[in-house]
Amino acid sequence: MIAIVVAARNLSDACKKVVRNKGSAGIDGMATRELKTFIDAHRSKVVHQLISKNYRSQAIKGVEIPKSNGKTRLLGVPTVVDRWFQQAVSQQLVIHFELDFESESYGFRPRKNLQLAVLKSQGYINDGYQDLIERDLKSFFDEVQHYKLLQLIYNKVKCRTTLWLIRKWLRAPIVKNGRFCKRRKGLPQGSPLSPLLSNIMLDQLDKHLKSRGFRFIRYADDFSIYAKSKAAARAIGNEVYLFLKDKLDLPINPSKEWYPQTFYIQGVGL
Question: Exposed end of the chain (fewer CB within 10 Å): N or C?
Fold first, then answer.
């Protein structure tokens, strides 16, 4: 797969995407507008480093951004060059996974959006599934276990160089208040690769729910499960809690319970 990742067309498309998305500079100070100049001067060198496993990813810049509840969320900003390669990997990795994702997953996917998720929820409610449990995964992006994620990727992509590269990005330290902090788990929010990696991880939950015949919707790390009684909703919630804890080693926010006849997702209520 790595040969396709570093193919000229794929790298060119990745460069255009990174430049178009703009975003702030990483710890090296390089702006997105400087990426094309860098590629013209150093492309052959950095591609060779990547293929030979001599590429050195840089630390992630930690940036605190405010949340609507008054708290802050830590955004991890990779360097522009790392974002370029991450985008290139994402463009090829998604080909191996997208068709296998469940239709009930609506976040970070082509031709999927919040509006479609809301319409799906209305369909469930109209069909009589009016008792639901709505949860978000507590600090999901900070809690993803790297070894579980890498195994899921390797099950489909048998390219050790690609796995080596993804692992380096996952383990890259984050700089917070001038200090380098090691990372042994989690996905940096700010990486072009993280949305896809999060869906790869949570697709395991989707497949479990689907196999059990549950009505559900997932949008990123928020999910809602629909039932026809409060008792059924509670029972399903307990089952999901155990699956997340035992199979994915993920925490779940205990403060959220079932909300009869009300659907909330990403700040939208119906």
Answer: C
For residue 107, what is the DSSP state? S
- 3 state SS of 42: helix
Which residues have a Cβ under 8 Å from the Cβ of 100 and sit 6 or more positions away? 203
Residues of the chain with pLDDT under 50: 258-270
Tell me the per-residue pLDDT of 222-233, one tens digit each, with 9 for 90 and over. 999 999 998 999
pLDDT at position 138: 72
105 forms beta bridges with 218
Q: How do beta strands 215-219 and 222-227 pair? A: antiparallel
SS3 content of the chain, % helix, strand, coil (to 5): 50, 15, 35
Q: How many C-beta atoms lie closer than 10 Å to residue 83's C-beta?
A: 26
Strands 60-66 and 174-176: parallel
Match 């659907």 to its residue by tokens: 263
Largest CA distance in the chain: 63
Calpha distance 157→93 (Å, rounded) = 8
Q: Which DSSP state fits 7? A: S
The confidence score (pLDDT) of residue 72 equals 84
pTM of the complete model: 0.92
Q: For residues 123 and 49, give the distance between their C-alpha atoms in angstroms, rounded to a whole number.
A: 51
